Amino acid sequence: MTSTTSTTTAIRLAGRASHLPPSATAALDARAKQLIADGVDVINLTSGEPAFPTVEPAARAALAAIAEDFTKYTPAAGIPALRTAVAAYLNRHHTRYESGDVVITAGAKQALHHAFTVLLEPGDEVLVPAPYWVSYPHMVTLVGGVPVEVRPTPGSGLKITPELVRRAITPNTRVLLLNSPANPSGVVYTHDELAALAAVAAEHDLTVISDEICDHWVYGTSFTSVASLGPDVAARTLTIGGMSKTFAMTGWRIGWIAAPAHVAKAVAAVQSHTASAPSSVSQRAALGALTADLDEELSRRRTALDERRQAVLQRLDKVPGVRVDGDARGAFFVFADVSGTYGLTAGDRTIGSAADFAELLLARADVAVVPGTDFAAPDHVRISYTVPPDRLAVALDRLSHFVTDLTVPGP
Ligand SMILES: Cc1ncc(COP(=O)(O)O)c(C=O)c1O
After folding, report:
1. pLDDT 10s digits, 92-101
2. Interval between CA 241 and ligand 1 midpoint (Å)
3. How far, in Å, CA of 342 to CA of 150, rounded?
4. Helix (H, G, I), strand (E, B), or coil: what is residue 197?
5. CATH no. for residue 167?
6. 410 located within any domain
7. Given the CA of residue 133, which atom of ligand 1 is nearest to it?
8. S-S: 110 plus which of 41, 105, 125, 165, CB 3.0-4.6 Å?
């Protein structure tokens, strides 16, 4: 019998799929997990999710939904009560969303995909601040758009400026993508910085997509929602968010778009033809979480992550050749420039890139971090501080020893 795999070459993939590389972040995470499964004591600092359990009211609401057989298709835009709850949740940040402006999606990832689908014509350009979350450029190209990198000036704290945006604008520019708190850099834009960027978008009639999935995870500073900057800004902004990061619900796959109602309507139409709707049970879980009083629990979790963040910053400050870049005040990542270790060797290998650094750190010190290669930051590594404090301390010891044990190559 002919195996299925031996005949797959007969199927020609479309260009958009054949040029789509798998996520390197996921690949490294998978390698670290495989080593752990093989019994190696690897400490995995690659994770893109908080290591807390799903908040309890969400789990309870999901069980109730199953018990009630709330297991059928829902309206394409999501159940009305959840759309209302999300609008209220967003409006904590001084936006003015109504239920009809919100579409519930299968995670923020799908929300972004829908956003690009409804906005872009082939060849339309999307300004993507670098370093960027690995999926953004691929999402843009998947629907025929063109991602255009906007790179911060070195030494400027990994933030883009209005001037850099203006320089990147062409007659084809359609969207300015913003992401604060940012993955992978952990930077948080201030109110005034966002207002200045939104003003450039207005000058050039650009639509803003603001990915605010990590809105809860800010430390010692405040979060600004772009759509709160005024009705004119809200009128050109799509706000993306979800349950994954704040409520530790990555596996439940609930996110959203909030946007002017005609945009929300178009998004709901796309969703109705591509996914029908997100999982009914997960929507009820999200509703359970958003309508419970979780302020204290979420604030405890934020304090816990802040303590870990500070432990990383204090320790890295003493590691030669490793320099934290950006303010590191958001998400759960510290982004470190490791180019100060280039030219040093570990065994018979010389470090020449952050990818080498990450590979050798895993191989020789059993610590996994993500090299910035796919984030358009080849000299940086992303260190996720979501692991428990005792494990984080061991990881930092290992990283520190790994770097101090690097040697200058002989003549
Ligand atoms: C910046 C950013 N946006 C969106 C997402 C997608 O989140 P979700 O799990 O809601 O799809 C992630 C997840 O890693 C992210 O880091």
Report:
1. 999 999 999 9
2. 8
3. 26
4. helix
5. 3.40.640.10
6. no
7. 1
8. 105
Query: pLDDT tens, 326-348?
Result: 999 999 999 999 999 999 999 89
4 assigned to some structural domain: no
- The finding on whether 215 has its CB within 6 A of some atom of ligand 1 is no
**Residue whose entry in the numeric block shows the structure tokens 């007659």:** 171
- Strand 102-105: give its sheet, edge to edge: 102-105, 255-258, 237-242, 207-211, 173-179, 125-129, 146-150
Residue 397's CATH number: 3.90.1150.10
Where a domain ends, among 292, 314, 337? Answer: 292
75 and 211 inside one domain:
yes
Ligand 1 atom 7 nearest Cα: 108
Split at pLDDT 50, 70, 90, the class of 310 is very high
Boundary of a domain, candidates 229, 258, 292: 292
Residue pointed to by tokens 């604008």:
169
> Residue range 195-218: average pLDDT?
98
pLDDT > 60? residue 1: no
State in Å: Cα 215 to ligand 1 middle. 12
Same domain, 98 and 137: yes
Residues 32 and 73 in one domain: no
Pocket probe for ligand 1: among 178, 179, 183, the residue whose CB has the most ligand atoms within 8 Å is 183
Task: Give the pLDDT confidence score for residue 79 in this predicted structure.
Answer: 98
Half-sphere exposure of 409 (CA within 13 A, CB side): 13
Domain containing 321 equals 13-52+296-403
